[in-house]
Amino acid sequence: MLGPPCSGKSTWVADRAELGEARVDFTRLAGALGAAGDHDNSDDIKAVTYAAQTAAIARIFDGLDGPAYIIRRSLAASSIASYGEAGVKFVVLDPGIDECLARAEQIERPEGTEADIRAWYESPPDVPPEYLLDAGALNRPRKEATMGRTLRDRFNLATNKQKTPVRAEIPGARGDESKAVLRIYDPIDSWGDVWGLSAREFGAALDELPDSVSEIELHINSPGGEVHEGLAILNQLRQHQASVTVVIDGLAASAASFIAMAADRVLIAPNAEVMIHNAWGVAMGDSDDMRKVADDLGRLNANLARIYQSKAGGDVADWLEAMRIESWYSDEEAVAAGLADAILSDEEPEEPTVEARFNLRVFAHAGRAQAPSPYIPRAAPAAAGLRPAEQSVNATHEGDDAMSNLTQGLRDRLGIAADAELDDDQLLAAVDEALEERAEPAPEPAAATARNLPEGTEVIDSETLAQLRAQAEEGAAARAEQDMQRRAEKVDAAIKAGKFGPARRESWLNALEIDEDGATADLERLTPGLIPMAQIGDAGQPDADEDLYNRAFGATTKEK
Description:
By secondary structure, the protein is of the alpha/beta class. Helix content is about 45%, strand content about 10%. The strands form two sheets. Strands 3, 4, 5, 6, 7, 8 and 9 form a seven-stranded mixed beta sheet that branches. The chain has a two-stranded parallel ribbon with strand order 1-2.
């Protein structure tokens, strides 16, 4: 979308773009990054906004699915040609210089806007007719604007439906009031209301439950959201006296995935998905501020990794790596990893679902189909029983009965009378005494002589053994180098074929290291030619904005 200042470019796009379609708009980006007002940007805000705009345009050409709108004032002829050859369609919005000047005065645009308008009309962009959007699409009807839709558009994890209420339902058809059904079918957001579900709103729904409720069935279909709001919801569930069963109906991504870990039992519907990744943050400031934010995010990531590990087993370090590369799990993979206990069968009661669609393009992978194979812990999943917070308020779960049975079994085998009062330390002392009585003396070690060695054993001196060990270590290092080179060749070949951009090289290398066979199969399924590998043009003649960009980043050219 090209046009002079005050031509209405942003309004035209907002009125016609569908919800969820990407829009790269300098003015809107500047506002999100702290501008004092529309078109009233400091040099620092302009510099940061240019960087965000460049990254957003690069992401679009790095294989972003679906339509996208790029709003610019003008482009050099060479850039127009390069974009046009790549399939980009242009709209030039030109209401006339008098109209633009009148609008600038009416809405009190900053000083310099009039000069920018006149400069645009002195040298307007020359777009060949074959690159222009057809008249039918150009005249696409304006959408009916509503306040709810406008707020949703500004939230990058928005849905295309009205917010789903957190309903605390007591199924009357069951004939009792022991089970309640709740739903998380929205993003997790501290503002709540039209923005998503807040911990305050979820807590209010829990407070409405009568004391007779002993089982909560929580249905989840959410792209996640704010970490601390999600942690608050997780702990609200852990602290509730009722047992909790989570049913993942469609998606449990980001914060929604660790909320699910609060349950005593996690069921996942066929074809549903789970996604885990590192915590995100946005900050402005100096190097100390950036380091503090990085440290805070590191602590958050470690905390979340322990939540997944407490449910699924494995090592915290491995879960941190799985989060770092953003891991997506299908229904079967979630069960294999221990993040879910079973796939919802036809026999399981399934509550009616509420339709919701989320924009997943904000993540590194837009769903399991576009992601490499996820991390699966080598250890068996954690045994079912109490959820990780055994200290739940008034917790009375079957784990208590299991411990009581174990204690009684030990007393029976040791012959301790039923009326004998023993605490845990005394019981353990009795076990140790019984083990010592049954232990047999260890045999004397045999002398290390040739006649005592098993048949076929060869004796070598320590120097020869050290040489053999060194040679084995060198061979292992060489093999590791060969494996690394082989994986790099696979990823580089995929990049050269245009299957994805160079920015994702490290992510795919990590995926191949974790599961080379699975990641190789994923690479082979990707469609070649999605990413243009040839240069898309240059920025043309520098303007005042480019000079500012160059001063901020030290570059001599920037992507237009």
